[in-house]
Design goal:
30 helices; 28 strands
Length: 845
């Protein structure tokens, strides 16, 4: 049934009608060509459809298969589908959470919830109850089905299973989301209905005039009406559209974008708003220390990611690490009180362990420290691991001279409680709490995460750490401001979007302050931030207004993202939505173009999307929009070209019938012209490259017709010229004594010559083609013209073609008149373009 529904389209009905006509005329080859085009298009649609169901399958694959539970007083492993509310589940590092759990015991438990919240860092869990309306990312006492335990252990009480879990709720949302058709398909459906009515009306007029006015035989008039219908039907248009889209897909693949559904190529060109996730798409997904606050200075740290490249500046001026000994002390504390390893692999620096700890290792290397040497010089003797209850990590070290040191890092408020001193100028002095609190607030306003490091000497014989050793007496070394920095290319891409009239909106699971700070650095309007709780308070009308005013949305859950997309679409926007997690799947499916991540995207997100970014980079979306605009323009060029040619052919048939004259071109000759030009001249337009300034234009109005009044005028002008030239030469040489077969051969070749010269003009809808680039810039245009010259020479002079198509050879000098007509048509269209350009923006192309 899904395959049969591919044929439920007015344009397809018109094409099937054309196939019936050609079969009636006895031209099996033409019939097979048309039917082949229809079937191939149906197969493409059939394969592309139905993939939404696979998104649900992908979600099921994310779920845990087994669970370790406490039943009958002892541990046992059961299938996750056998869990019921009330079961107690054991969790440990590496486990997938099998159901939604209320945690009842945690031991340094960290859970990666990025698939649900979009946050890049694992969340440390606690037993502190959360309010019922707490956003998903802040439910620290909960572990949700499908998320991954990355560290520690825990016990949880099952509170929801199956469809009642958070991931089950997303699955329901995904199943309920209604997919929307693309702008091009909507416009093509409208165009096909309009074209069908027009063809039927003119065919009926042709039949009526020929039968009642000129009293021609019914069979003869019927064949004339059939000829007009065959001439007017653009049989090659669906194939040209499909090929143009496929070429766009190939170009996008070279620019790190994989298209999963062909119509998405064109939709990209009409996008008015891009909704992007923050982590990894707009940012690097690599935690970086960007600010080091000491008792005397505020150092800004250059470089991004885990590569130890970059240095330090103070007030914009370079600060050499060797000139500030405190940087070595700070780096040493950050390096030794740390469990992460940063290493180079395949030309990239990667972190093994916690990303934040990896950022501290990189900072130490930027300060000139060697991790291997420092760990050998002061080996670790004992450790108090980080736990949510005490919010710090401490390590005990001894150097080879017998000195002992405790290094401490953790939440600034907690570390400061344990500090009595601060390090200033290489000496310890009484800590100034007010100073540090001011620097903390200043750093937090930048959207950076805060971490503090401190140290304390201990007796050389100390062999273990006790919590009693941690109460006071520490020296505060520094505060770190850490964040996932924006991608440089994303900043430029957003600037290009704004120039192209495309709004960029950031939708993230992160906190509002972080989102606002990152948004400001990216060039997104950060004056207003809406959180998930704000969105829940707005009705549909208020939300439609809010999405026009706000560009940053924080703490957003799946329903929020879906509502935001629907609100933007209600405002008339064509919306592209990026995402990587299961939580993004409903919004990806609903968006006009769903864009999933190729590296960190889940299979559920990829299956719900139309497009996959190979490099997870926002800049690749902008490249795809650029290609999408080019594809859309190429399709419009091909439509204008084909309709002008079809109009010329149909006009010749109608003119002959209305004047009571013999047809200058027969239905089978029309099919010949349509067939050979569709695979040569029309197809060449699919290979047109990006026009200069295409990203300077605003997005095309989604409600605008595919064929604007400007283009209708172009079609009428060219069709009229083709009718005048072809029919005029036919009549002239018929009166000069040439046979009907010769005159028809002249008419056909004049028509093709006009098409050849119109092809040059069609390369640009508005710009002049009178240049080296305009005439010779597309090698496929030259190849197609060479091919059509050979084909038409065979048509005119090969005896077998005379028998098949009812034509005859004519004197060679007549080609000069045809050439003159083609040149006249070319300059006529170029003159019209010049007039349009002079009128400027008042006329919309």
């Amino acid at each position: 049934m899904r395959f049969l529904l591919q044929f439920h389209n007015v344009l397809i009905y018109v094409l099937l009608g054309a196939a019936v006509v050609t079969a009636f005329l006895g031209h099996a080859v033409d019939t097979l060509v048309i039917v082949g085009v229809v079937v191939i298009n149906a197969l493409i649609g059939f394969i592309q459809e139905g993939k939404a169901e696979s998104a649900l399958d992908a979600i099921r694959n994310l779920l845990s298969l087994h669970a370790v539970v406490l039943r009958d007083g002892h541990r046992q492993e059961i299938g996750a589908e056998d869990l019921v509310p009330g079961d107690v589940v054991f969790l440990q590092s590496g486990d997938k959470v099998p159901a939604d759990l209320r945690l009842i015991e945690v031991r340094t438990l960290k859970v990666d919830e990025s698939m649900l919240t979009g946050e890049s860092e694992s969340v440390e869990k606690s037993l502190e109850p959360a309010a019922p309306d707490t956003s998903l990312g802040d439910r620290l006492c909960m572990a949700h089905s499908g998320t991954l335990v990355t560290y520690g252990q825990g016990l949880g009480l099952v509170v929801s299973t199956g469809a009642q879990t958070e991931i089950g709720r997303i699955s329901r949302l995904l199943a309920e989301v209604e997919e929307i058709t693309t702008p091009l398909l909507r416009k093509m459906a409208h165009f096909a209905r309009w074209l069908t009515v027009l063809i039927l009306v003119f065919s009926a007029i042709t039949f009526a005039v020929g039968f009642w006015v000129w009293e021609q035989s019914g069979g003869e008039v019927f064949m004339a009406a059939v000829g007009l219908a065959v001439a007017a039907i653009p049989e090659g248009l669906p194939a040209i559209m499909t090929i143009t889209l496929a070429i766009g897909v190939q170009r996008m693949a070279r620019r790190k974008t994989i298209i999963r559904r062909l119509p998405a190529v064109e939709t990209l060109g009409s996008v008015t708003v891009i909704c992007s996730d923050k982590t990894g798409t707009l940012t690097r997904n690599e935690m970086t220390v960007q600010r080091v606050v000491t008792a005397d200075q505020v150092f800004h740290v250059d470089g991004t990611g885990y590569a130890p490249r970059g240095g330090f500046t103070i007030g914009g001026k370079e600060a050499l690490a060797s000139s500030y000994p405190e940087l070595a002390d700070i780096g040493r504390a950050a390096l030794l009180c740390n469990d992460a390893i940063v290493r180079e692999s395949g030309g990239h620096w990667i972190v093994e362990g916690d990303p934040t700890e990896g950022a501290l290792v990189t900072l130490a290397m930027k300060a000139g420290l060697d991790p291997v040497y420092e760990n050998e010089a002061q080996p670790r003797r004992d450790v108090i691991p980080f736990e949510s209850e005490h919010r710090f990590m401490a390590t005990l070290h001894h150097d080879h001279a017998g000195h002992g040191f405790i290094f401490l890092k953790g939440a600034p408020e907690r570390v400061m409680e344990m500090c009595a001193f601060e390090r200033s100028g290489g000496e310890d002095r009484t800590m100034r709490k007010a100073y540090w609190h001011d620097r903390m607030e200043e750093t937090a306003r930048l959207g950076q995460r805060l971490l503090a490091v401190a140290c304390r000497p201990v007796a050389g014989g100390t062999g273990e750490l006790r919590f009693g050793d941690m109460e006071d007496g520490f020296t505060l070394l520094a505060l770190f401001g850490i964040m996932d920095p924006p991608r440089d290319e994303a900043v430029e891409a957003i600037r290009l979007c704004h120039r192209a009239g495309i709004d960029v909106k950031m939708i993230t699971g992160d906190h509002a302050a972080t989102a606002q700070a990152i948004g400001g650095q990216l060039g997104i309007d950060a004056s207003q931030v809406l959180t998930g709780s704000d969105i829940e308070k707005l009705d549909a009308s208020a939300l439609r207004k809010a999405v026009r005013e706000a560009d940053i949305f924080a703490r957003a859950n799946p329903e929020h993202k879906l509502r935001l997309v629907e609100a933007m679409q209600s405002n008339g926007d064509i919306c592209a939505m990026t995402g990587d997690g299961v939580n993004d799947s409903p919004a990806l499916k609903r968006a006009d173009v769903g864009v999933s991540m190729g590296i960190k995207g889940t299979e559920a997100a990829k299956d719900a999307s139309e497009m996959v970014l190979v490099d997870d980079n926002f800049a690749s979306i902008v490249s795809a929009v650029e290609e999408g605009r080019t594809v859309y323009e190429n399709i419009r060029k091909a439509i204008v070209y084909i309709l002008a040619v079809s109009g010329g052919q149909a006009g010749m048939v109608m003119a002959a019938t209305l004047t009571g004259h013999v047809l200058p071109i027969t239905p089978v000759q029309i099919l010949w012209v349509n067939m050979v030009t569709a695979v040569t001249l029309s197809l060449a337009l699919a290979f047109e490259h990006l026009e200069p300034g295409i990203m300077e234009r605003p997005p095309r109005d989604p409600g605008e017709a595919l064929i604007t009044p400007f283009l209708v005028a172009r079609i009428i002008v060219v069709a009229t010229l083709l009718i005048a030239g072809s029919y005029g030469l036919f009549l002239w040489y018929e009166t000069q004594g040439l046979s009907l077969e010769q005159s028809r051969a002249i008419a056909v070749n004049t028509l093709v010559m006009g098409e050849v010269f119109f092809l040059f003009s069609s390369r640009y809808l508005r710009a002049s083609a009178l240049s080296i680039e305009g005439l010779f810039g597309n090698v496929y245009v030259m190849l197609s013209i060479a091919a059509i010259i050979v084909i038409q020479a065979l048509f005119t002079y090969a005896p077998p073609m005379h028998l098949l198509f009812g034509v005859a050879a004519f004197p060679p000098h007549i080609w000069l008149w045809m050439l003159a007509f083609g040149i006249f048509l070319f300059f006529s269209v170029e003159l019209e373009k010049a007039v349009i350009r002079r009128l400027g923006a008042r006329i919309r192309t």
